[in-house]
Write a structure and sequence with these properties.
mainly alpha, transmembrane, transmembrane helix, UNC-50
Length: 247
């Protein structure tokens, strides 16, 4: 069975010509080189079958000599989705152009981008130090920081779906002062966070030069413990609303 995601001719040409931040930047301003079809398939599979996205990794490495994406289409689509959802939050709960822009700035540039760059850096240095196979001929310098950020983007997709979209739809119910609202809201946060680490685990366990990647799953039982404790009276959604909107 062929598990590869769709590839177009621009992907092959990009792989032959090398990669890097400058190429990514150039492709943003060359719409014809962007492969939004493959990026859309990636979004679908990351939600329903995240392992399948990473089954394409070895082929990607062989054709493009890098693990990270060289096509910014997925990053662009994810940012567009975040901007649209942030706009919806702003229109509903932060009336006023300045407040809406400030909320969009915070949700996209801080919650997603800045936090993602920090998380990617933590994984990059930690994994290179502790989870890289010793003596492996490909281990030195094999892990790319750009790939670490790709993994963050992949994991953040479910966070967007559950906390930016589904939570927005259910917010009038989730902010009620009853245990069912607390249970559903806290479950959304716990599940999305655990799923983030699961997708992150899939991303790093797919790299052949890493070992003991199961340690990446260690935050999940910790999250579950805090989740169970929160069910005794700590409504995460209400605290989120107070933090973002002061309500």
């Amino acid at each position: 069975m062929n598990h590869r995601l769709p590839l177009n001719q621009s992907d092959v040409r990009a792989g032959r010509s090398g990669g890097g931040p400058m190429q990514m930047l150039r492709r943003i301003f060359r719409p014809r080189t962007l492969d939004f079809e493959t990026a859309s398939w990636e979004i679908f599979y990351l939600i329903f079958r995240p392992k399948r996205v990473y089954k394409n990794l070895y082929y990607h490495k062989q054709t493009k000599n890098k693990w990270a994406r060289d096509d910014p289409s997925f990053f662009i689509l994810l940012n567009v989705l975040l901007l649209i959802s942030a706009l919806g939050w702003g229109l509903a709960y932060q009336p006023g152009i300045v407040r809406i822009i400030r909320l969009m700035f915070y949700m996209v540039l801080v919650d997603f981008l800045l936090l993602g760059l920090i998380i990617a850096a933590v994984f990059y240095f930690t994994i290179r130090k502790f989870l890289t196979k010793k003596g492996d001929q490909f281990s030195q310098g094999a892990l790319e920081y750009a790939y670490c950020f790709d993994v963050h983007c992949n994991g953040f997709l479910i966070v967007w779906l559950l906390l930016y979209v589904l939570q927005f739809v259910l917010l009038p119910v989730l902010t009620k002062d009853n245990w069912l609202a607390l249970f559903v809201g806290n479950t959304l946060y716990a599940f999305s966070t655990c799923y983030y680490f699961l997708v992150t685990f899939y991303g790093y366990s797919s790299l052949p030069f890493l070992e003991h990647t199961e340690f990446i799953l260690l935050p999940i039982p910790i999250i579950i413990v805090f989740y169970i404790a929160s069910l005794f009276g700590f409504n995460v959604v209400q605290h989120m609303v107070e933090f973002y909107f002061g309500k």
